[in-house]
Amino acid sequence: MAAGSGDRRTERLLNLVIALLSTRTWLTKEQIRRAVPQYEDCASTEAFDRMFERDKEELRELGVPLVTGSASAWFDDEQGYKVDRDAYALPEVAFTPAELAVLSLAARVWAQASLAGPAARALTKLRALGVDVDEQSLAGIEPRVRTAEPAFQPLYAAARDRQRVTFTYRRPGATEPVRRSVQPWQVTSWHGHWYLVGHDLDREAPRVFRLSRIEGTVRRTGPAGAYDVPDDVDGRAMIATAIGGTDSTVRTAHLRLAAGAAGQLRLRAGVPAADADRDVIAEVAFTDPGELAATAAAAAPHAVVLDPDDVRDAVVRRLRGVIAAHAEHDLRAGHRTDVPRAPSSAAGGAGRRSSGRPPVQPTAADRLSRLLAMVPWVLEHQGAPAQEVADRFGITTDQLVKDLELLFVCGTPGHLPDDLIEAEWEGGRIHIGNADAIARPLRLGIDEALALITGLRTLLDVPGFSGEEDREALTGALAKLTEAAGEAATASRALAVDLARDVDRSVQPTGEDAAAEVLATLREALRHPAGRRRLRLHYLVPSRDETTERDVDPMRLLTVDGRWYLEGWCHRASGVRLFRVDRVVSAAVLDADGTPPPDAVARDVDEQLFTPGDDDLVVTLELTGAARWVAEHVPLDSSEELDDDGLRVVLRTPDDRWLRRLLLPLGGAAVVVDPPEVAEGLLRVAKAALSSHGLQEHVSAAQGRDEGAAAEGGIPHSAGAAPEHPAV
């Protein structure tokens, strides 16, 4: 018997599967206890009962069709167990290499998420069918989502099982959280955040809840299957409506833009590049006055709104709010230098949202799933080289030997020599025998099927991501997988991921069409028949509000927090850089080798995109409750709760211009506490912008509360208008 606790658990689960597959009659719990040697470790009947209940649940999650029935012809209350052998096996399905390649890519969507295990197990089972993955066709493409929120797993499980939940929820700007009771319909990733869409039983209406605002424990209550989900549920549309409203009336504003500045607004207005060094009057189309006011305020003092009045007034409120809030803070706190400065050696990024979990470690269930896939494949490929088997199932040859050693001590009840599985690996070639009970690959479990089906649907929705051949592979794989998964596929509506629609329309005014064109060009450079090709990018640098030209050797396309990035060797910077795809104004493939130099190393983006520098400014801010969202979108050194739902945060930036572009749209909802020179620079810009609008520069402290409150009423409540951190 293997020595490790994980080995013993895998051994016990494998023997349990074999025992329940081998029997033609129902086995009682007592018979199972005698048939599986590892249950002898249980000190009491109660301990065995608890272990057996856990094992049953684990097998069902893996897709093992464990069924119950009467074990006695005379007594109906004597329950027995066995595995439905007709439902056990994965149906025969033939995936093409291209289809299995996109299935592998779909599994990668969950590489940093809680469904990573089920996705990997599903892929392992499908690989047991004998189709080789064309890894080259996937080179440089890394779509991924994260599930850092503690509420994700219970809410996903509740939506999957159609089971009611209760939780405590804090709405934006609310001082106290409220208890909610909800029937979950779908858990959806949208613009890098997870949301629950469902029926709010207290409000008796559909509602949307952001998972990061759920406090404490999510409790599942009542039976599974307690309600039906409406057929027409569109989680992404519900979230977009809840966050952005429904008014889509297009209006026009006129802005005076200073020479050599306001690059983002110039792009949005379509100002010709030849006019870059001239003052211009630009026409800007918009639907949301608050969004345009935030963008104009961020460009202060280089952008002046001439009309309409509601946008102009919204900009002025923000600028006066900045001045008023700082004046009021000085009255409360004395002089700003009385506040202790944050130590410059603080660890960068400690407050950044991260994956929230260590790298996923294989579990006993993962190993069991691998064994149940590996045995059928080896039985069909006797004598396969050890390295080939190890590569196919994603393990080392040392781990393969450990797996074979475990198989060697498992078998049908009785566990005499003739009952045990035969495993040989001498001479570097693998042979397995006497394993008829598990000779067919196990079907997909619900979580496994759902992870891959959701991943495939996610890739299908990405504009410009798939060419005709890729789309054919995606649709083919999705159809075959859905059929092969059978009943497990019916729960796939419980989960949705959107990697397609996070587009900065100030850079790509035509939205998804422009984003699709850029993404397709970047993929062409990565997958060019002649090898990787160099790219020429025109790229907006938001922190400087300017467009630059870059020649880049592409390394990979990846998603982080809902956004697509190109990572590559930038010849202008002579280093590896990340470029947000929706900040690419235009991209062209050059007829030049795009192979990055040997010292071009991909960055570790699993935790954060921002790497602090020794010369960065360390800035302390105080945020009101209306601006708490900043802490979720900006890398932080630290954060501290304040009264009235506020936060004191410490962040780093190599460029205070980026900080001004972040803070000016917030009006009175954010104050620079330290260092004083950063606060003074912010106030100079706000006063100059007021002057450009023909208004007074000075706002007295006595006016502070009213002006600050007015500004807060119109500030953005999301990161939609926030500039990207300069290091990203």
UniProtKB/TrEMBL annotation:
<feature type="compositionally biased region" description="Low complexity">
    <location>
        <begin position="340"/>
        <end position="358"/>
    </location>
</feature>
<feature type="domain" description="WYL">
    <location>
        <begin position="517"/>
        <end position="588"/>
    </location>
</feature>
<feature type="domain" description="WYL">
    <location>
        <begin position="151"/>
        <end position="215"/>
    </location>
</feature>
<protein>
    <submittedName>
        <fullName>Transcriptional regulator</fullName>
    </submittedName>
</protein>
<feature type="region of interest" description="Disordered">
    <location>
        <begin position="331"/>
        <end position="363"/>
    </location>
</feature>
<feature type="region of interest" description="Disordered">
    <location>
        <begin position="697"/>
        <end position="728"/>
    </location>
</feature>
<dbReference type="Pfam" id="PF19187">
    <property type="entry name" value="HTH_PafC"/>
</dbReference>
<feature type="domain" description="WCX">
    <location>
        <begin position="619"/>
        <end position="690"/>
    </location>
</feature>
<dbReference type="InterPro" id="IPR057727">
    <property type="entry name" value="WCX_dom"/>
</dbReference>
<dbReference type="Pfam" id="PF25583">
    <property type="entry name" value="WCX"/>
</dbReference>
<dbReference type="InterPro" id="IPR051534">
    <property type="entry name" value="CBASS_pafABC_assoc_protein"/>
</dbReference>
<feature type="domain" description="WCX">
    <location>
        <begin position="251"/>
        <end position="321"/>
    </location>
</feature>
<dbReference type="InterPro" id="IPR026881">
    <property type="entry name" value="WYL_dom"/>
</dbReference>
<feature type="domain" description="PafC HTH">
    <location>
        <begin position="366"/>
        <end position="482"/>
    </location>
</feature>
<dbReference type="InterPro" id="IPR043839">
    <property type="entry name" value="PafC_HTH"/>
</dbReference>
<dbReference type="Pfam" id="PF13280">
    <property type="entry name" value="WYL"/>
</dbReference>
